[in-house]
């Protein structure tokens, strides 16, 4: 009893909030963070119904990951009491499906709404994952380097200048890879 209390005191707790449109890959990323690697676990995923909070331990930290289902029906609800999600948060991860070119604008719109609700300069880390950037991604006339570069430029131009964020390319199919977009 005593020792578990002590453990709790020395462990750092980290709260991460995952946001993004439906089907962007949030729950899959959460599973990767939890160490679930079986591909079948990803294929059988159902859309997340509203908020799902998962707790796990890694190294000397206790993580709580808030996975906010991205289906349209839930989005407005989050903004009714967004403080609840910001409170105690160390890091927001906003996930965008890079393969879903037709919904880039909607993804950006939702992200800006999130950023505006966090309040600039409050010290919380904000990462944007350009997700499904798979190693075997095949470019075509719809999705290619130019389309992605234009989108990145649009992201950079839309985010308020004082807001700190990092942009990454990510994929659950890469053997751990996370590269900063310059
Ligand atoms: N190609 C590819 N597919 C992925 C990747 N990550 C997730 N997916 C697929 O994308 C689909 C949606 O993934 P989810 O993790 O359920 O998406 P979500 O963002 O949690 O969706 P909601 O719960 O509806 O908000 C699944 O079929 C995953 O297998 C990736 O890196 N590459
Ligand atoms: Mg989900």
Short key terms for the protein model shown above:
182 residues; alpha/beta; Rossmann fold; 7-stranded mixed sheet; 36% helix; 25% strand; binds guanosine-5'-triphosphate; binds magnesium ion
Give your account of this protein's structure.
Helices cover about 35% and strands about 25% of the residues. With about 180 residues, the chain is α/β, with parallel strands linked by helices. It has one domain: Rossmann fold (3-Layer(aba) Sandwich), CATH 3.40.50. The chain has a 7-stranded mixed sheet with strand order 2-3-1-4-5-6-7, with helices on both faces. A hairpin with a 2-residue loop joins β2 and β3. The longest helix is centred in the middle third of the chain and has 15 residues. It is globular. The mean pLDDT is about 90. It binds guanosine-5'-triphosphate and magnesium ion. The site of magnesium ion has 6 residues, from α2.
Query: Termini, distance in Å?
Result: 49 Å
- Indicate how many domains the architecture comprises: 1
- Placed side by side, the strands forming the largest sheet appear as 2-3-1-4-5-6-7
Q: Quick check: average pLDDT?
A: 90
What's the total number of strands? 7
Low-pLDDT windows of residues: none
Helix/strand class? alpha/beta
CATH homolog superfamily? P-loop containing nucleotide triphosphate hydrolases
Strand residues, percent = 15-25%
């Amino acid at each position: 009893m005593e020792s578990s209390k002590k453990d709790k005191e020395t462990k750092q707790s980290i709260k991460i909030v995952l946001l993004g449109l439906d089907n962007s890959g949030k729950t899959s990323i959460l599973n990767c963070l939890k160490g679930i690697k079986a591909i079948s676990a990803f294929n059988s995923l159902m859309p997340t119904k509203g908020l799902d909070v998962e707790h796990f331990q890694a190294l000397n930290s206790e993580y709580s990951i808030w996975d906010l289902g991205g289906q349209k029906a839930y989005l407005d609800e989050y903004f009714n009491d967004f403080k609840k999600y910001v409170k105690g948060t160390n890091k927001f991860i906003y996930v965008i499906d890079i393969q879903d070119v037709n919904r880039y604008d909607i993804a950006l719109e939702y992200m800006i709404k999130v950023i505006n609700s966090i309040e600039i300069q409050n010290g919380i880390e904000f990462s944007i994952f350009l997700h499904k950037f798979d190693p075997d991604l095949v470019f075509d006339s719809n999705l290619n380097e130019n389309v992605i570069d234009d989108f990145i430029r649009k992201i950079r131009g839309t985010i308020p200048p004082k807001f700190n964020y990092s942009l990454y390319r990510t994929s659950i199919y890469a053997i751990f890879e996370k590269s900063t977009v310059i």
